[in-house]
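Hey, can you fold this one?
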Amino acid sequence: MNKPISIAIDGPSGAGKSTIAKTLAKKLGFIYIDTGAMYRAVGLYVLRRGVEPTDLAGVEPLLADIDISIAYEDGTQKVFLNNEDVSDKIRTPQISKYASDVSAHVPVRLKLVELQRGLANSKSVIMDGRDIGTYVLPDAQLKIFLTASGEERAKRRYLELTQKGAVCSLEEIARDMAQRDENDSKRAFAPLKAADDSIVLDSTTLTQDEVVEKILELYNFKCED
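Sure. Predicted structure:
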């Protein structure tokens, strides 16, 4: 293929976007870009500086001091915040909340979107997030809106965290996830929603392999020469 292919996978927290996107990227030989991790890194920096994530006046001056990069080590994506590997530090309920709050600020989104679009212009990519198909990559050749029931999403996130040794409660995760859903869908700039030309895929009763196979079928139909 001469022109890079872009696949956008949007959806709420806990829908399985990152896991599905990583698997697809390996199968297709695409670059996977976890945009949510980039916002989480901003949230972590804001937390460390003692600034409230909803305070635009406090957050915006920090952006000039934030450098976020993505690298692959042994096939695993690593997220670096000012050269520090924060891949594990950004996967907590508190950082999820901070990421949601800072992502509502237009200057934050503009800073990260510029980098994301640049990557997509030069390489075939799979990006997952909340506004990839609607705002970041509106011309993506394939757009998927991946969702699942709130109960199922909370359970998945709980299992993910506990398997990594985190101490958390299912009730707290469900509550935080519901709040993030509301924040993401109601923000004024680039809210969470399915693009008009996206394909909605409910993964509540599907295995990861089944979701991957369905998306590969759609890719073969829409994107293959």
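The longest helix spans residues 106-122. Let me know if you want another pass with a different chain boundary.
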